[in-house]
Predict the structure.
Amino acid sequence: MKILVVEDEKHLAEILKKGLEEKGFTVDLSYDGEEGLYMAETYPYDAILLDIILPEIDGLTILKRLRQKGINLPVVMLTAKGEIEDKISGLDLGADDYVAKPFEFSELLARLKAVIRRSKSRAAPLIKINDLEIDTNSRTVKRSGREIRLSATEYRILEYLAFNSGRVISRTELIEHIYDTEFDLDSNIIDVYINYLRNKIDKGFDGQLIQTVRGSGYLISDG
Amino acid sequence: MDRHFLKSIKGRMLFLFFTFTSILLLAIGLFLYYEVKDIVLHSVDHTLHSKMQMITGLLHEEHGAIELELSEVISGEYSIPRSGHYYKVIMDGKILAASPSLVDKTYDLTSGVLEYNDLKVREKVFTSIGPDREPIRVLQHDFKFLGRNFTVFVAESLTDSISMIGAFRKFLFIIIPAGIFILSITSLWITNRSLKPIGNLSDRLRTITHKNLNEQIDAKTEAEELVGFADSFNSMLNRLQKAFEAERRLISDASHELKTPVSVIKAYCDVALQKDRTKEELLETLVTIKEVSENMGRLVKDLLSLARLDSGVIEPASFSVISLNECIQQTVQFIAPFAEKRQIKLRTSLTDNVSILGNKVMIVEAILNIIENAVNYNKDRGTVEISSFLNTDGVIVSIRDTGIGIKESDTERIFERFYRADTSRSTQGTGLGLSIAKAIIEAHGGLIKVESEIGKGTNFYISFPITRHPISL
């Protein structure tokens, strides 16, 4: 899952990136509103963490412009004001949730995950595909009740495929959602990780879950 | 209670009205009473005069003897005893004639008070007691007739006149208090009616709280006299609203500014505790937390400084004579290590020692904030030039940097609280330094101005009034 964090306080932005990355997210940072808006419009993110008071363009305006352009990705507002009026105006403009500063990092994380799940039409944190279970909270994976240990990148790929199960995901899309924007690698790297993943979750079990769609990408499905 | 009542406009108006109407009505009553009494007595005197004329006209000589021949017309009232009409004629000290009504001819009609004495016509008027113990008015006339001395007394009872005056006095005793009472009630009504607009206005003022200070009071509908009052009140409301607005904004800004570093510290702690960390990772976290909390400490200190300045703690009474050069040099010494880190040169060229009246700690803080600003927004290897010179009004300190400069549109705003021309939080500082400097300088009767050119640098000018110059140490 790839998150855009728009926050002008650099220390806060950096620790958010670090904390979220440790929890399995990919994070892009922007320190001002103009750049933040550009990035949100240009790159595919799974959610945006948006501060309200920003240089150049404030958070509420960014939100308004995104919604006007029909970009419906989940937005969590981050605000030091925390005042009722702000909450209402933000929600009116189409924010999905709020976190008031100073916040509990675990709460921020939970809210962020919840809005992403909702946006992928999966309210429950547990994703089940046949006998494969992915707990997106504890980031643990089980198949037929047996726990499978995955590396951070393997987990991210599996989670993204699982969230979008039944849909073919291209290598480019995977890269865009797994690595941050500065990442500039051959998309063949995905094939390498898919291979590792297959070895861990498909090998020795009944039924291939991860399928290759020639010329298009990969698919995870119940079938 | 009484004292409170007299303190109120209503009480005062009633009291004054009551006093004045009472005095006025009493005076009118007294005047009328004496006037009526006068008129009545006058008419009695008039009657006495005509009767005197008649009686003296009846004196005549017959056969060498002088006689008084009463006419039919007037003999009636004088013939009935105790009729209240009397006369007596004395010729050469002997009673010549007396009215039959005066049963005792020797009765002294002039035993009472002499009211007036007209020497020219030799007439005297008495108020006296009649033979029937009734009050009488007596006219005495002395004259010579046919070589003899005559004294004629004519008297009339005053019983009717006195009862008439008494009736009038009774009437006044009723009409005056009634008048006072009716006028007082009327004045109470008038007062209540006149004061009603004030009551209405005060009811409307009562509805104003800190939440609806922007409401304006319109007194035109109440009373023309209250318009001025309402205007002053409205302008006070405006000032209050501005002060409240500024206060509210400061609190909102301050809470925002304080929440940010708290969020950073908290987020660093939360993330650090998220999993097991190496010693190096923890150290890194601690260094950041230390830096952020130091910034926060500065912010708190600046906020307190501002709050103190706002509450008007700086009093000219506490000022002492201080050397401006000493203040500047101390500040420069303090800031030098920070400037050196970025290889920024600090140059000073100060005028002869100048003394100003002020609080040294505050002045140093103000200058420090400006020089700090000049260093922070300077480019590396830049210069900050601090110079001072005298002009007719006082002393001017100029602080010129070679920094990034301030946009024309921002030069007004840089003294606003939490205003940063550079909106990213990359540069250090609380956003309060220049507001504090401005508040301190203005509290010292000074001025602060700024000139700037983008890319070239900024020049701050501070002016202070001087006490005496130059003093040699």
